[in-house]
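does this look right to u?? zinc ion version
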Amino acid sequence: MSDDALPVEERLTGVVVCQQANFFYVMVGADEYACSLRGRLKKEGETPYVGDRVEIVLEPPAPGERLPPPRSGSLMLPDRPDAVPDVRSGAISTLLPRRNLLERPTIANVDQVLLVVAAAQPEFSAYMLDKFLVLAAHGDLPPVIVINKRDLVPPEQLAAMIDGYRSIGYAVVSTAAGNADVSELLPHLAGKLSVLAGPSGVGKSSIVNAMLPGLELRALEVSTKLQRGRHTTRHAALYALVAVPDALIADTPGFSFLEMEAILPKDLGWYFPEMAPHIADCKLPSCLHMQEHSCAVKERAVIRPERYESYVRLLDEVQAIERDAAERSSKEETAVKRRMGAGGLEGRLVKVDVAARESDRKTRNQRLNADWQEAAEDEDDFELDDLEALDGIDEEA
Ligand SMILES: Nc1nc2c(ncn2[C@@H]2O[C@H](COP(=O)(O)OP(=O)(O)OP(=O)(O)O)[C@@H](O)[C@H]2O)c(=O)[nH]1
Ligand SMILES: [Mg+2]
Ligand SMILES: [Zn+2]
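got this back:
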């Protein structure tokens, strides 16, 4: 029977929450179905990712086929530890259009990123937060700033941190995940797929644990880590919050600092909401809002000195990345010219130049990925330390 011949009511629409072995776990309301992929989708090379919305048709397992176990940390487990989860089976028949796709971990249809920082321990770093905000803007992900460990600072100090970012227009909440207090965050999660990001030790896992009591996130992190060989994709899993309607949370930290690489110096200002509205009025189209004449940003933007300081530091960083890439590319170009000898090769040289730049980019990406992975394998920490290892930045300044 073809999919189209099925009555509509036998098809269900759900979200892929996890992939294990050959099964996609699809959440439909409060149920999860272990689904195979219809042959037609396979043939077309369409692969659903976690976060994808799909249509499934219910299907008994094929004769002799063993149903997979419930996924670890299935949303049916934390709340009803005594229940034997009832895994039903189906097949994904249609992959619905996806709005976006986050890489590493690969998650589709991400609505927002929860940027977690600590009020203290590790010390609150405006620069670090600003860097995450730039990455979120670059990735087109609306951020919610979560200041965790608010129990560690006096209320006035906390209020100052919050106001500094609320006044720019960001959504800011504070939590004490260690005391299971994440109540300010919950209303921001309804109806959305959220990923977490933030430096190591700020309390990302604690926040998820506070929202999903009973879920052993530590253990989960270890198991996702094991799969992360040099060439394997990291699979994330999504968890639904029982207390909040249609809220999905990814269990792995979203995005890494590697993406700084893709930010051009002249675009950086656009990622600062205080600067962006004035950029079009700068006289120079390539204005970097530093010492240029007739810079509308310098003249008119209302920006806190610490924020502008972050801008300057980040500009320095992306400029260094660009310089580094250009240097490598020109070295390669010279080598190619030498190999080819002089004269009569103008046309080819252009192509070679482009190729050199492309291959340079590829090599750099590979090198960064390898470094990143080595760093990640060596340490338990995620992004922050890896970044420092890569770029040699002193974050303490
Ligand atoms: N005082 C206080 N400590 C907290 C709070 N939330 C988490 N912690 C502690 O901070 C430490 C780090 O918390 P994690 O949840 O592991 O931090 P993480 O962001 O997941 O860290 P990585 O997995 O390394 O990226 C743990 O010792 C927690 O107990 C809080 O609200 N207040
Ligand atoms: Mg963690
Ligand atoms: Zn300017």
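The CA atoms of residues 20 and 71 lie 8 Å apart. idk if thats expected tbh
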